[in-house]
Amino acid sequence: MQTEENTSEGVVCETVVEIKNADGLHMRPAMQFVDAASQFDCDITVSNAENSVDGKSIMQMSMLAATCGTTLTIKAEGADAQQAIDALRELVEVKMFGEPPPKDRSRN
Amino acid sequence: MKFADFVCFEAIIPKLKATDRDGVVAELVAALAGAGRLANADCSKVLKAVIEREKEASTGMGKGVAVPHVKHTAVTDVIAAVGRSDTGVDFSSLDKQPVYSVILLISPADNPDKHLQAMESIFKHLQKDKFRKFLRQSQTAEQIEDLLREADEEPSL
Minimal Cα distance from A51: which residue of B? Predict the structure, then answer.
């Protein structure tokens, strides 16, 4: 899912990603996410079912408790929103923060 | 998850003696062991594991707080110790500032989801200015326990 709309301020992009590494979004992956997000000028918001947090704040990202299998919505607002979304999706779903997936896929 | 579900209230150190990171973690590990929460594990091995994790990337998250943690077979459920320092401790924090409040979290080796839930409760509160201020101002273990229990009951704190 990806939406895009042009406004006078810039671009708004949104995507849904699934956490695929076994240990979930613990502190190291959360730091990688914040580092990657901070490379971009756009505002980045990350939401789970309960909370929406600043994707550039490590404390707030640590609040998401995103376990393996959790889906998160990433919303970016600003000129480089599309690049940010593409980079963050790759980090979460393709690189999986450089961590392994669950050994037993039926675990969840 | 609530603080009361995983914080060991017998392992609260209101005035940490150590003034360096490794010493602080050692005090907190010893407090958990003293409270009987590390089974028969070798404290020095748990300590070493926490420090090794800390060296990979500092858990000093800025704003005067650090949350050193590790997954270890010494525990079967998540367990935390809480310490506060009058002088401030260098944790190589993200914001380069000293740390005054430390929450040490030991998680079981095989339950990543539980670890994340404990982290969620910790940061839900630590990111609030008021909670951090109250924790830093607490002078006794009782005050810290009261604060944590109050935070459990009052989401607004």
Answer: B124
